[in-house]
Amino acid sequence: SAVISQKPSRDICQRGTSLTIQCQVDSQVTMMFWYRQQPGQSLTLIATANQGSEATYESGFVIDKFPISRPNLTFSTLTVSNMSPEDSSIYLCSVGTPTLAFFGQGTRLTVV
Amino acid sequence: GNSVTQMEGPVTLSEEAFLTINCTYTATGYPSLFWYVQYPGEGLQLLLKATKADDKGSNKGFEATYRKETTSFHLEKGSVQVSDSAVYFCALSEDTGGFKTIFGAGTRLFVKA
Lengths: 112, 113
Fold this sequence. Notes:
The complex is a heterodimer. In chain A, 0% of the residues lie in helices and 53% in strands.
């Protein structure tokens, strides 16, 4: 199993600013995944964070908007840059095994 | 790529009614399949899972069977309660070196007393 600590749990930010979300896992993992859940929507994968290489972004997500760091096998950050109200969502990090996925508690972001 | 399709909601039922939420998937290989539930204002919770064909996952009266021949993983419950009102997400794991989760669009369930 894996325990994921994610912070902050929530934040209210001004438009045009950036927020960095941190995710700490209690074991070493090769890949970490970042998701977004917009209000009333499902979870959409933003990117895969690999240790030692650049993140792999899904269609519709770009590095300039969502830069990701992965300095070691237990930690990753996602930055939401130049925020607008449309970025108001829950952001979650995740790690997976063949039979189970583990999720952080999520960061509820409100952009005003 | 892999994908999950689930029935659109919302689904509205009376208490003690039978529930079915359809889910089909497209995948290469044999992914694990999951149902997650999200209660109003809360985070995602794993409801049940199945890791190979013909496995049945069950929890809290909910069941789903991994059907490889029909690529389906339909969620069922014999008698729903008001407290089952939530959004239900069907999902699968995809092996990309790590295992990422691909979610369906979600089905909102309302149960009336």
